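Quick one: structure tokens for this chain, please?
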Amino acid sequence: MKAAETALLICDLQNDFLHPDGAYGRAGLGTPEIAALPGRLAPLARHLRAAGGWVVATQFTLVPGRGGAPMISPHLAALRPFLRQGDFLPGAWGHQIVDELQPMDLAVEKIAYSAFYMTRLEWVLRRCGITQLLVCGIVTNGGVASTVRDAHVRDFACVVLEDGCAAFDRETHEAAIAGLRPVCDVKTVKEGLLF
């Protein structure tokens, strides 16, 4: 693996998902596994950047419409009725990647599970010469899995960092990892440090 062609792709580790004062924290949603991710991933981000690689973040985004009310897809509104105006707002504190993982080399807003859907991610990665992705973040069965599958069909070499991802329960996480094995390599964060 060439570091200069590799990006750590951090999916959605944002304040509104992880911080107690964020949208999900206010709703009482979170797990110890999700909370532990920034501390586990920060050394890898520093290591990869020092080796010449990239740290790229995706930021789940609720685009504000007229009057500032967020445009929320019906399935998400049903699943997460607590979301309100100001949550995941572009440029706001809740939208930002958690401090422990800053700085990012690149950040891309996304509006759906896959970070490739209607975003500039593919263009940015190719422009930077990135051909390999170490994918981590939340949630394993949602944003991570969808992004990895879309990366696979675009011929990016993908490694999912099994202990660098989490879902809202262990069984869902493990099922998602098992489902991704046909389209990517699966390694640990520690293995990702071996450049």
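Residues 32-50 form the longest helix (19 residues).
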